[in-house]
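Milestone M4 deliverable, item 7.
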Amino acid sequence: EEGFYLQEEGARYYLQAIENRPPEEYLRLSINEAGQLYYRLFKRGQPGEKQELTLFLEKEGGLSSKKVVLQPAYPGEYQEKFFESFTVKDIPVVTNRSFFSEGEQELDDFLESASRLREAPVGILDLRGHRGGSDYLAGEWIANYTEQSPALAACYSDLRTSTACKLMENRFRGDRNMLEQVRQRFAPREEGWSEMVYVPPEELESEGVLLVLVDNQVASAGESLIRLLMQVENVIFMGINTAGISHFGNVGLLHLPHSGLQVEMGVTLFFEPDLVFREGQGFEPDIWVDPTRALELGLIFLEKLIP
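Output delivered:
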């Protein structure tokens, strides 16, 4: 209620402005090693780029300025493992790095992990490094977690040209059922685009607390899962902003005639229900932490949350 301040040697120095802008524009909620919430400075920049901010503080009855240098947040490196499930300090943890499964049993185990998390008072879903895949799996996992049928809230329009249809046919060559659906959905239209479809967000009930770990490698269908999780009660996101690769989907493909290289491109334009264009910026977490320490700090946070 009194404003934001820096604490140095027991004294509080209240922030009046940052870069001559309201402090709120550069502050994000975070957590320290003791499990205490606080605000940390943030500025969006290029990957690996240091950022300098000028703080204007109320100090000893007057204003003073202080320059601070922000260090870039780097994502971690993760094994290309579809799914893993384990327990730390009685807290169930599920990791998922993509929606590209190598077998039916592994896929079944992943979908079943949603039920395991649902039955726990608190749990962690680690999506750091998630490189996407099929939105279908995102919906199935959420359905198991909430025991409700989710809708992927979005506004979208399909590019309906002969080229777009051919790209999608190439994607599903050999799958008769999918080819029939593709030819119906992407049948060429004179206008080129389909009518815009709006699917409103829902409120999905959930009793337990789910902490979701994210970083700027989470992309595509990984962000579709986040879009669904944002509709679920008691879900908290921790890490840094996601990649922002979710506005162009239904990826078709072709092979270049001389090199034979495969080219993939989306033929559907998606927008969030709020119509904010997040390409390259992604979704912001609720609690900002160094993504390489997200699991460690997440466990501390949940231990503090539950008596």
